[in-house]
Amino acid sequence: MLPPAASISYRINLFARTAPMNSSGHNQFRDEVVLVARIMLVLLFLIFGWGKITNFAGTVSYMASTGMPAPTLGALIAIFIEFFVSIAVLVGIFTQPLAVLMAVYTLATGFIGHKYWSMTGMARYENEINFFKNVSIAGGFLLLYVTGPGRYALHFSKRG
């Protein structure tokens, strides 16, 4: 009989699967998976950023109704980050620093827009879900910061 620690390790390894590796030992589909992840991470922001652009007056009005001190500026910042920064992340321009910006923005909008801790009933439940979705999305952006954009990205280099 195996000692308890070895037994646990054995069970974990038994179910562990690894992605197909290429001849150099790297994940064969790493770059493709990172590209799909970038698309999935920014899709929400592109959709709602575009909505803010096409209904700018409504966006400003909504932000004013939440008590935001400078709703027009807030709407412009939201549009810039949600739409234009997302496009940059999507195509792989300055991906890592922008992934950090997106993580911070996503956490901030969670704390600003989904204050479930001050609500009751169904509103609390719905906002708690959205708050923790924001936390999860921010985690995805932090992972993108660590992994980088992968091969399928527009890269800039300094020319001497």
Automatic annotation (TrEMBL):
Transmembrane portions of the chain: 33-53, 73-91, 98-117, 137-154
A Pfam family matched in the record: DoxX
Query: Where is the protein localized?
Result: Cell membrane
GO cellular component term, pick one: plasma membrane
Question: Which keywords are on file for this protein?
Answer: Cell membrane, Membrane, Transmembrane, Transmembrane helix
- Topology class, membrane: Multi-pass membrane protein
Domain of life, per UniProt, equals: Bacteria
Which residues are the signal sequence here? Answer: none
Q: Does the keyword Transmembrane helix apply?
A: yes
Family membership: Belongs to the DoxX family.
PANTHER family, A to Z: INNER MEMBRANE PROTEIN YPHA-RELATED, OXIDOREDUCTASE CATD-RELATED
Protein name per the record: DoxX family protein
Q: Which organism is it from?
A: Acidisoma silvae
Query: What taxonomic classification does the UniProt entry list for its organism?
Result: Bacteria, Pseudomonadati, Pseudomonadota, Alphaproteobacteria, Acetobacterales
